[in-house]
């Protein structure tokens, strides 16, 4: 893989500055709108699991972002390391458009195409940053499912490459485009609950698994490529009445519960609620200074921050973690309670989740509505719209989308720090300016991870 990446980098002059100038020239003629067939962005999907479209996994379900892409862009390619899912993805796109997209098992074939304008990333978390960075360097705009990264250092690199290439990158934290959360933000911005003192993010606990045997990977799955930059590991699978895959495994969907590929609930749902809390608290350009794991439960034993049993899920199942900012503002992440975010201010409280916004300040809207344009002001000066429309509008006008890499990196850093503190079982101190853990080399070692040989990210 390394030689291929370097060859591509050579074509790009190995320079981020050059890449930025080149892709602006390349992209401009197609940033014209969504109705003209000659101007619609050409989209390639990398990762075609259930977050892309449940139908491509054999489930007749409603979930997935792909159908929301169809009004704005044309799928010209799909890519997956699972040949069965890849075949279903081809069928789904052909049904939508009347034309079969090109199909690949290797994402580099997509990155190398000059006619792809937008790369949509729906892979497991440990692949997100590498593919997104290489796509940006190759002149593509990116829609990447959350969480954006597996580590803090990946987030820093994502921000650097995005700045230097000028690419439009939207993260799939769709709550930023949800009316309930925008209303909550507008209420807070208008001072209706005073100054925020604390936000509590209830994100639900993580699952456990039985012992999962190591078995041969199915013939339709390129297990080595699925692992990619993650450590080499045997394929584990146990059929049973569990989740959308009806199994326990290290792979499809269930990868979320292994620290090798994800951060568990802390980054799965944390990427949603901690993101909103950070936005509301106006901490999108900084981070906490103290992270305390007040209570953490893991399903397997740990030593020096690493699980010692590789036969079962290993991410935290229960947790109460407090992050404190330099000004004393607190953000709690917990597994219990009503899923959502509770904001506590000097003049009241407000609760919001995907189903409701509640509190005295909400009740007061009947008598004292929000000012005109309050939601628009929260939504970066744009008219609030569908999360996918917001992305494609940004592709057209080259503006920053609502879920940008920079603020999401800061929010997700809190989630990653919570995971590090949980794994080590101790309080850690963080410098938001240096983006380093203070006086704890062992904890700092978790801020990045060395990729497996052959899967390095070259920039």
UniProtKB/TrEMBL annotation:
Its EC number is 1.1.1.18. Keywords: Oxidoreductase. Gene3D superfamilies: Dihydrodipicolinate Reductase, domain 2, NAD(P)-binding Rossmann-like Domain. GO terms for molecular function: inositol 2-dehydrogenase (NAD+) activity; nucleotide binding. Residues 74-172 form the Gfo/Idh/MocA-like oxidoreductase N-terminal domain. It is an enzyme of class 1 (oxidoreductase). PANTHER family: BCDNA.GH03377, OXIDOREDUCTASE FAMILY PROTEIN. This is Inositol 2-dehydrogenase.
């Amino acid at each position: 893989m390394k030689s291929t990446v370097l060859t591509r980098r050579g074509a790009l002059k190995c320079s981020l500055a050059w890449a930025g100038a080149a892709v602006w020239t390349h992209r401009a003629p197609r940033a014209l709108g969504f109705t003209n067939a000659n101007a619609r962005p050409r989209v390639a999907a990398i990762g075609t699991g259930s977050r892309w479209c449940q139908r491509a996994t054999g489930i007749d379900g409603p979930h997935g972002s792909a159908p929301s892409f169809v009004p704005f862009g044309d799928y010209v390619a799909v890519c997956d390391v699972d040949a069965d899912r890849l075949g279903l993805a081809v069928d789904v796109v052909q049904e939508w458009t009347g034309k079969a997209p090109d199909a690949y098992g290797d994402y580099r074939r997509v990155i190398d195409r000059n006619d792809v304008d937008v790369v949509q990333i729906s892979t497991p978390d440990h692949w997100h940053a590498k593919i997104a960075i290489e796509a940006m360097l190759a002149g593509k705009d990116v829609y990447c499912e959350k969480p954006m990264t597996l580590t803090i250092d990946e987030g820093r690199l994502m921000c650097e490459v995005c700045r230097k290439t000028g690419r439009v990158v939207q993260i799939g934290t769709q709550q930023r485009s949800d009316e309930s959360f925008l209303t909550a933000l507008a209420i807070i911005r208008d001072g209706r609950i005073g100054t925020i003192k604390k936000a509590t993010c209830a994100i639900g606990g993580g699952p456990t698994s039985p012992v999962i045997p190591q078995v041969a990977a199915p013939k339709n799955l390129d297990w080595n490529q699925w692992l990619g930059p993650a450590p080499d590991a045997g394929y584990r699978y146990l059929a049973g009445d569990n989740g959308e895959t009806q199994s326990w495994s290290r792979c499809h969907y269930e990868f979320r519960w292994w620290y090798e590929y994800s951060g568990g609930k802390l980054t799965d749902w944390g990427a949603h609620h901690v993101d909103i809390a950070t936005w509301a608290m106006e901490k999108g350009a900084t981070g906490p200074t103290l992270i305390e794991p007040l209570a953490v439960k893991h399903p397997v034993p740990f030593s020096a921050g690493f699980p010692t049993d590789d036969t079962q899920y290993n991410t935290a199942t229960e947790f109460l973690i407090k992050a404190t900012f330099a000004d004393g503002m607190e953000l709690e992440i917990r597994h219990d309670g009503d899923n959502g975010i509770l904001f506590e201010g000097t003049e009241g409280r407000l609760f919001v989740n995907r189903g409701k916004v509640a509190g005295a300040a909400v009740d007061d809207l009947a008598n004292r509505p929000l000012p005109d344009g309050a939601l628009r002001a929260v939504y970066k000066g744009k008219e609030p719209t569908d999360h996918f429309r917001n992305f494609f509008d940004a592709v057209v006008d080259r503006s920053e989308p609502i879920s940008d890499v920079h603020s999401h990196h800061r929010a997700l850093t809190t989630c990653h720090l919570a995971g590090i503190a949980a794994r080590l079982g101790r309080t850690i101190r963080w410098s938001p300016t240096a983006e380093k853990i203070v006086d704890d080399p062992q904890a700092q070692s978790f801020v990045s991870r060395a990729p497996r040989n052959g899967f390095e990210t070259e920039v």
